[in-house]
């Protein structure tokens, strides 16, 4: 799940690249103020129930209704992970397959709804939770239940959003950029630059319950870039790591998935945001590669740091 969440950063970076320095995260999050998203999600769930209960004669009709409902849900709520579109694609031309039972369809729908719930950020949690709860109820009606599914429904309660708790110890997991690079010169480009270097393997952050905390930096690096073929598109990198132990104490506040960190040293404000089980921060102009070739320009670009709880 963490790898999937981290992969979504390629979309978030496109937004951050055009915002002002360290602005609060305002990415592609659908905040439903008029319940329209909730309504269309419930309609899609009802369409799914009708579809899974359809006989062969009505299969095509109810399949198309379900497909249209999913498309409407995408238009109103968005489809950040592409799961709804994947479901539409799996329906194809709505031709029934003899080896697909209504119970199998219900189980697949429940698994998809659970995946959406696990990936949901706070503004979307209630919609995702209700969808999962209704998928479970449909699975009970179609497949039966030994009490396990009903227990899951009971655990969901009234689907009130769970407040994300940032208190704890966090460790740097990766650096994401929208520009893939082959920094370790192995012929493979990647958007996660941390995978390409041997530095920054133990950078951590502590968020205390009293609203204080600290960022712990233990290394710095120097990167040089050149072109052995005098081709600016054929680049070689060299990376040198340095021990550089620094601690930055801070105070922090939280509103939903946004965590505002204020450094004690100079009052600088850092805006973290949460997605899934990770917290992220956009580091302006962090990756710097100095050119040592006349035909290659210096590289300066933003990086998103991702932290995982440990």
UniProtKB/TrEMBL annotation:
Q: Which residues form the signal peptide?
A: 1-19
Listed A to Z, the keywords are: Signal
Do the record's keywords include Signal?
yes
What is the protein named? Answer: Lipocalin-like domain-containing protein
Q: Which organism is it from?
A: Winogradskyella alexanderae
């Amino acid at each position: 799940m963490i790898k999937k969440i981290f992969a979504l950063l390629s979309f978030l970076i496109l937004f951050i690249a055009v915002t002002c320095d360290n602005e609060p995260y305002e990415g592609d999050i659908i905040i439903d103020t008029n319940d329209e998203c909730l309504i269309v999600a419930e309609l899609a769930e009802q369409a799914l129930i009708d579809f899974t209960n359809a006989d062969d004669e009505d299969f095509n009709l109810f399949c198309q209704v379900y497909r249209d409902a999913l498309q409407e849900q995408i238009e109103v709520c968005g489809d950040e992970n592409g799961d709804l579109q994947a479901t539409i694609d799996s329906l194809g031309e709505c031709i029934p397959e003899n080896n697909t039972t209504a119970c199998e369809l219900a189980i697949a729908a429940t698994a998809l709804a659970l995946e959406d719930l696990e990936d949901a950020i706070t503004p979307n949690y209630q919609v995702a939770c209700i969808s999962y709860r209704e998928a479970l109820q449909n699975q009970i009606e179609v497949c039966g239940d030994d009490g396990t599914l009903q227990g899951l429904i009971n655990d969901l309660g009234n689907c009130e959003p769970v407040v994300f708790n940032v208190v704890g110890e966090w460790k740097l997991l990766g650096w994401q950029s929208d520009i893939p690079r082959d920094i370790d010169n192995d012929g493979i480009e990647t958007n996660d630059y941390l995978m390409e270097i041997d530095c920054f393997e133990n950078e951590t952050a502590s968020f205390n319950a009293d609203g204080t905390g600290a960022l712990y930096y233990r290394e710095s690096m120097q990167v040089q870039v050149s072109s052995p073929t005098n081709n600016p598109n054929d680049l070689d990198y060299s990376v040198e790591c340095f021990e550089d132990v620094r601690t930055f104490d801070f105070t922090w506040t939280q509103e939903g998935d946004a965590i505002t960190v204020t450094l004690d040293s100079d009052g600088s404000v850092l805006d973290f945001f949460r997605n899934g089980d990770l917290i992220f921060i956009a580091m302006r102009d962090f990756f710097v590669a100095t050119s040592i070739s006349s035909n290659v320009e210096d590289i300066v670009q933003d990086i998103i740091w991702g932290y995982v709880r440990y």
